[in-house]
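This entry is retained here.
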Amino acid sequence: MSEKIKFAVVGCGHIGKRHAEMITRNSECELVALIDIKDKAALGIESYDVPFFASLDEFLKSGIEADVINIASPNGFHFEQSYKAIDAGKHIVVEKPMTLNKQDAEKLIFQALHKHKQVFAVMQNRYSPPSAWVKGMVENGKLGEIYMVQLNCYWNRDDRYYKPESWHGKKNLDGGTLFTQFSHFIDIMYWLFGDITNIQAKFADFNHQTLTDFEDSGFISFDFVNGGMGALNYSTSVWNQNLESSMTIIAENGAIKIGGQYMDKVEVCNVKDYVMPELPPTNPGNDYGAYKGSAANHHYIIENVVDVLKGRNTITTNALEGLKVVDIIERIYQLKK
C-alpha cells in the first residue's frame, strides 16, 4: 500500500473529532467521509470538507472507497457498526470498549479473521511514557516477583457530563462506569500483569442515582493468574474535578507509583540497583471544557494503523487484548447483587 490510506469516521463527538483531526494531520492518510446521526452544524465539523452521511449504511452504499472505518460512536453501537464495516471488507479502528460483552467481541474477531481484516482496539494509555517504561521494567524482570498492584481511579463525572440528552449513563449504550471511564486503566493492568481471577467486588451508587442507570463507585480485589494480588478502587463521585488515576506496584525488588490525573507522572521509583531515567513528557489530557479525559495519544493509534497496513510494524493493541478487557469488566460486573 504505497498510496494514502483512506479513512471514514463514524461518530463525530469529542473523540470522533480527535480521530478526524489525527487522520487529516497525517500525510499518509486521507479522510474520505464523516458519519453521524446528528446535524453537521450541531456537531461543529464544518471545517472538514468531506462527504457527510447520517448512517454507516448510507456511507457503505455510496461507493466511496475507504480502507479503514473508525468507530467512535456510543459504546452500545460498537459491535454492530464494527461488524458491518468488517463485513463490507474494511479494516476497523474501534474505540474502547470494543463491545459491551465478550460474546460480541468473539464474533467480531471471528468475522475479522474470516475476512482477513485488522481490528485496531483503541487503548491509547499504552503510549504514555510512564506506561511504556513500567512495561519495560516488568518484562525485563527488574522488579522481580510482583506482590501487589493497586489501581486508584477517582474522577469527577457529574451533571456536566451525564446530560439527559446524552448516551452517557444509559445502560444499553454506555454499559457502565468501568466500560466508559476506566477501561483504559484495566487495559494497562492487563497489558502489564496479565489476566485476573478470584474476583471479589463491592459497588455503590453515591450521587448518580438520577444521572445514570448504574453504579458510580466500586472496590474490586483479585489475584493475578501470573502471581500476586491486585485491587481496583474507582469512583466518578469526586466533587468538581478529577482527583487521581494511580497505580502502585509492590514487588520483590522495589516499589513504583505512577500518579497524576492521568497516570502521567512517576511519583515513586524505589528499585534495587536502579536509577530512574528521565522520561519524555506525557501528552496533556483531552480537555472537554467542564471535564477532563485521558492523555491525547490518538495520533499514535493512527500512525500504528498506517504502519501495520503498509507492512512496516505490528499492531499495538490487537483485538484479542480488546476482548480481554471486555471479559475482565464483564466478570467484575457479574458480581453485582
About this structure: The chain has a mean pLDDT of 94. The radius of gyration is 20 Å.
